[in-house]
Input
Amino acid sequence: MTIAHVSGYPRIGANRELKRATEAYWRGELDREGLERVGRELRARHWAAQREAGLDLVTVGDFAFYDQVLDLSVMLGAVPARFAAEVELAAGEVDLDTAFRMARGRAPRGEPAAACEMTKFFDTNYHYLVPELHAGQAFRLASSRLFDQVDEALAAGHPVKVTLLGPLTWLWLGKEKGREAFDRLSLLEALLPVYGEILARLAERGVEWVQLDEPALVQDLPRAWQQAFEAAYSVLGRAPVKLLLASYFGGLGDNLGLAVNLPVAGLHVDLVRDPAQLEAVLDRLPAYKVLSLGAIDGRNVWRADLALLRERLAQARMRLGRRLWVAPSCSLLHVPVDLERETGLDPELASWLAFARQKLDEVATLARLLDGRATEVDRQRLEAATLALQARRDSPRLHRPAVADRLAGVEPVDHERASPYPQRALAQRRSLGLPLFPTTTIGSFPQTDAIRAARRALKAGELSREAYEARMREEIAHAVARQEALGLDMPVHGEPERNDMVEYFGEQLEGYVFTRSGWVQSYGTRCVKPPVIVGDVSRPGPMTVRWSRYAQSLTDRPMKGMLTGPVTMLQWSFVRDDQPRETTCRQIALALRDEVLDLEAAGIRAIQIDEPALREGLPLRQGEWQGYLDWAVACFRLTAAGVRDETQVHTHMCYSEFNDIIAAIAALDADVITIETSRSDMELLDAFQDFAYPNEIGPGVYDIHSPNIPEVDWMVALMEKAAERIPVERLWVNPDCGLKTRGWEEVEPALANMVAAAERLRRRH
Ligand code: GLN
Ligand code: ZN
Output
């Protein structure tokens, strides 16, 4: 019998119950027991859903109040010294409040301390807390939460499989700290006994299977890490439980031989990202091993083609017999919880989708289909899926010939500005009349309660469209007046009309669909609702032109238009799976190109195209980077390149790791790029200097995430450092990122200081 299971299930709850309870606990409105109760209820509900769907195992270990990587760090006793109270150091349980302090710096109990760093989990939009590792660090079993959860599931009568991030991937995701340089791989030996203890404690409870997640296996591993896998698993393989080694987010590639031969009882592979690896895995898998095939897409919202999967997996079923398991490709953490709640979607569209709850059914049905023990319900599901997918394939919603025709007509010259940068810079200097060290901001000004209230009233039908637009114009006028008073050289309209930089554009483009409750955890209690790109993308009409034109009418200074770039529009959405991502991105680029040209025609002389997601789109394997960067850069250029020399193209990216992608950044050929630098003390400009980056740069001079007002001296000093690396004629002065999360009472003095810093710099240079 084929075993059906999942790598993990979303924990936030269909109503974001986890978010509500956790935030209430932080505010002191819910006590610890109340919070723990919500956790128990959610786990019970999610396990029950897995059983009801007919899965053979329920997965325990995917729950966390904040982050599962954090919980593992806590369980391993890897709590940085600044959080560890005396008691905990002595060997007791690490308290939940300690975990919350590691995550966000503070908690109802315990001293505030600097939070741990957070970063994206592989190529997902989920953020984990980076384990802090020290030379010679000791580990100990410091939390029994996982065991309690196992006991809960067993008490409810469920057949339990436990999931846990494996030791190599935990180390892989960690960061070496402390003054002495060391290799974090050296910690493995100390780590393994704690894993051993965990596995033994699970075995004592009668747990048969433990899934150790090692997604690091889909990345380029140095030889030493590959060897460490062998060493570690030859130890762990002796544990008194069966281990399922799980790889996902990509193919095993050159780690395939390593992965199939590790001495464990089973292997899970991602057949969505790499269907072609099935053949090789089947050929090389030792005869004693279970193979779990991740056939249902755990990263996207499309309904599975059950008929096709039955066919594709039939061979594996024949060869493996009872050693075959089926599952989603990865944890369902990355998709929304339940499609049933999307009552607002039109039924045809809804029939094309599957969220986590629906994917449970798909997995269970697929297992029964493969075994030839399909029930009536399975047969109906199979047929419904086939019909829905057929309808989707043929739908005019997907294919709009005008879009394809236009894309086919794109020529190489459409990616080229009329003149090279030096010539454009001269034309722009004439048309914009900016001083040395021009000042600007990144786009958004504070999204005040009043602005949000107006938008809610509009949605609720309590405020007319005209009244709402008038309110937004007032906000724009206000923002422009303040910028004039502050003396900013290149003002912005302030983006009051935007709820979100992707949603705002997606709502105005054809091809995008929005869900009502398609929430996905981003980090901690933060959830996002990514739009779904269903069909060919095009722009029915101008999106931002009236706002920018109005803003420009209020000032003689050059107003900067503000758009979200094609790669970011793609990256922060669920993308259709029936054509290459690249094609979808090019469609978006063409739609945005029209907006750029309309802005120019409306008298806007500078246009910023934000690409904060460019870097995170990098594939997990370095060998695939160039291919991605080539089309990503082409899409940006297609968006931007239609304008005249006089029109200045800006872009913005809010991160500071440019070394890997500096050539691509230069290839964007934006006239100006604004970046995050203040926290790295301008060191990141080294990458730009070494590359001899040819165009203009605005290195952010203050961190907008902090409420502190930056000092003039401090910003001048930072810019002087910048001036050592970049010729002053090519430097701009601006904050790190948009100001929407700040209040005006912080923004005004900060910008006043920034303008004063620029004035001082002009006098000096
Ligand atoms: N223009 C956007 C803003 O200022 C950019 C946001 C971002 O980079 N994430 O809010
Ligand atoms: Zn930013």
Summary: The mean pLDDT is 96.
